[in-house]
Each structure stands twice: as structure tokens, then as C-alpha cells.
Amino acid sequence: MNGTFRAHWADRLGFCKVFGSPLAFRCIKSDGGPVPLTLVGVTRIYPVLYRERLKNGGSIVRSDRMESRMAQQHNQRCSVLVDHVISEYQRQVNSSLLLNDSESEGAKILKILETSAEPEVLMAEMSPEQLTSFATYKSKLEATRQLEMEKSIEKALEQAGLNDRDVVPFMRIRVVGLTNRNYHGKGRAKEGIITIWNPTEKQESELVEGQAYAVSGLMPMNSDSEILYLQARGSTTKWQPLSPLEMESFEPFFCPRKPMKLSNLGEISLSSEFDIAAYVVYVGEVYTASHQKKQWVFVTDDSISDPQSGLSNSLLAISFCSPSIDDDSFAPINSNLVRSMVGFCNLIKKPKDQMNHLWVAEATENSSYHLNFNPSMSHLKSAGASVQAWAKTSNSIINELRKKVSFVIGNCEG
């Protein structure tokens, strides 16, 4: 970074005067300790995930969709148990034995009223002092009863394994070190994956792909020849966006997302990430393998318009998985998605199924899918509209594709 830009940057950002000059991203070492300040370009922002620490010491990561289901199920189970405990408690409790001062005037009045045929008449004849004693005792009684009931609920929840879940949200961001236009060194820019634990609402909503930032509060975790892995806490990590003028001092780093078509899938390398707008042809049954629930989903797009031209390479098989520890009713993909137009993001290209002429992809933790094109999927909107229009007039092709999927599944089961 040249001196003029550094001076401008330090003047532009107040916290640079606290943290000092930015450390070049390529110079960060995995064992070098906290990074006060560095400059990065954001190339990809992945969906927010949730890690739950389990009682056996392990942990499990879920998508936003799966975490919402788990939270709903947990709350339902808790509600049923709490209602049961309250009902049992109210039926069994003997209010006259709840307090040690059962011989007090207020306690004696309560006993008399409980056995009286006309308690209202007795209360009307009481002195103000007696009414005060009764009200004071009854208030203490209710407070004690509430406390005992809460203890019973806590004990029941603990025995049922339904006490509070230990869940922490996090998000991953793929970044690249910025290269100054005046830099003449060799080698490609260093890439990194930043994991933000407990990201703030501002970070979730305002971090943007294609924007460069000055970032403070990062901690390197490990590194390989290609990628540096770092983590941070949302509340202690500051992301200051560079202005368009400041970004002009660096080489371009961003390749915008674009929709991939099946007809072009051969142009990208294996393990590459891609996004696609596709029509769901078939959602497979859930099966368990390697402690995970797995499911295959077969999709197509408008790459083929004439069934006479053949159906080779016209299907994409996507492998989805989720932790098998979850309730069996939680399938990775709902079968109701069949015949829907869906946008998929961050799929990973896998080796092609040459025998069945199928493209294959894997949906990882960082993958997401949506039926509607929210801002994070706006780049798929036009492609999605095209696929949807194609599907309405291509019943014969879609039926042939379903037959092909049935044939493939039949061979696998055989």
C-alpha cells in the first residue's frame, strides 16, 4: 500500500488511528495471533447457520430452515410437558401445608373459609385486621406455590432432556486479499474464509458481495496452501466499507454470481460452486448413511426444448444431507417441491454419472434453496422466469425425464 493511500485511509477511518496501518492479508499467519486490521474483498457470503452443543459433548450444525423446525419442535415438547406438570401440581398440592406459619391468623382464616359453606358471609363479618392478615397470608401462599411449581417444571424439563438448548448462530464469508495496483509481486491473491460467531443484525443485512472492507478483530485459526481460515465475534468485529474511490486503488477481485445452465455445466471444473434456477422433477426417499440422512433431488432446466434431440445431460442429481440425530420427520428436502421452480445457491459440482448421463452436485452446509427470489437470489430471477415458462409448455419432456429418473432409481435399487 503506498504512503499517500495509507495517509488518506488513516484520515478516512478513525479506528485506523487506534489499530494502526492495515496488515496485508497475504502476510497473515495462522499462528500469528489476532489481526488488528486488514483489507479484504468479499467474494461470497454464505447463509447463516446454527451450531448446537449436545449434552454428550458433541455438536451439530443446522441450516436456518432446519433450526427453525428444531426450535418449533423443542418448544412444542416443552409446552406439552409444562402443561402436564401444572395440571398435576394443581391437582395434588395441598395449599394449607405449603407454609411453615400454618398457625398464623391468616392460615387459620383460610382453613375456616375452605370448609365453610358460605365463605362470602364470613368474610363480610371480618374486621379490617383479619382481612389484612388473610390477604397477606394468601399472597405469600401464592408466591410459594408459584416458586414450587417453577421448580417442578425445571426438574421435569431437566429429566426429560428439554432444558435450554445451547445454540449459536454463525455465518461464513469468503474473502480475498486486496492487491494494490502498484504492487508488482508475483502470485495470486490469498483467499480466506471468515467465520463470524453471533453475527450482528447489521452484519447479516449490510455485508455485501463485491464490496471491499477494512476489518478489525479477526483471529487466524489455520491455513493451507490456498485458503486462510479466520474467525471472529460479531460484536467485536468491525467491517468498514471502502468507498468506490478507495477501491479504485486495488485490482478488481470480484466475479459476480450468475445463473448456471445444465448446457454449460461442463465448462466449470469439479468442486466449483455454482447457482442454478431449476425445475424439480423428482424428490427421492430419505435414507441413512454414515450417520447422516441423505436424499437425492433431480432437477432440470430449459436447456432442452426438443425431446427428439435426446435427454442426455438434461438432468442434475443433487445430493442433500442432514444430521441423522434429528427427528426422522425432518427430511432435507420436502417432497412437495416436485413440480416447483427452485433457486439453488452454492452447489458443488461433483464427478458426472457417465453411465446414466447425469450431472451431479452436492448441497453442503453453505448451500441454500428458495422458492421465491429474495435479494440474495435476485441474479436467478430472470433464469427462473425462463425455466418456469418452459415448464408450462414442456410436459412431454418432463414426463420423459421422470421416466428416466425412475429407470435410474430402479437400477440403483436393483
Automatic annotation (TrEMBL):
Annotated SMART domains: Tower (SM01341)
GO BP terms in the entry: double-strand break repair via homologous recombination; regulation of DNA-templated transcription
Domain Tower: 51-92
Domain of life: Eukaryota
Classification via SUPFAM superfamilies: BRCA2 tower domain (SSF81878), Nucleic acid-binding proteins (SSF50249)
Official protein name in the record: Protein BREAST CANCER SUSCEPTIBILITY 2-like protein B
Organism phylogeny: Eukaryota, Viridiplantae, Streptophyta, Embryophyta, Tracheophyta
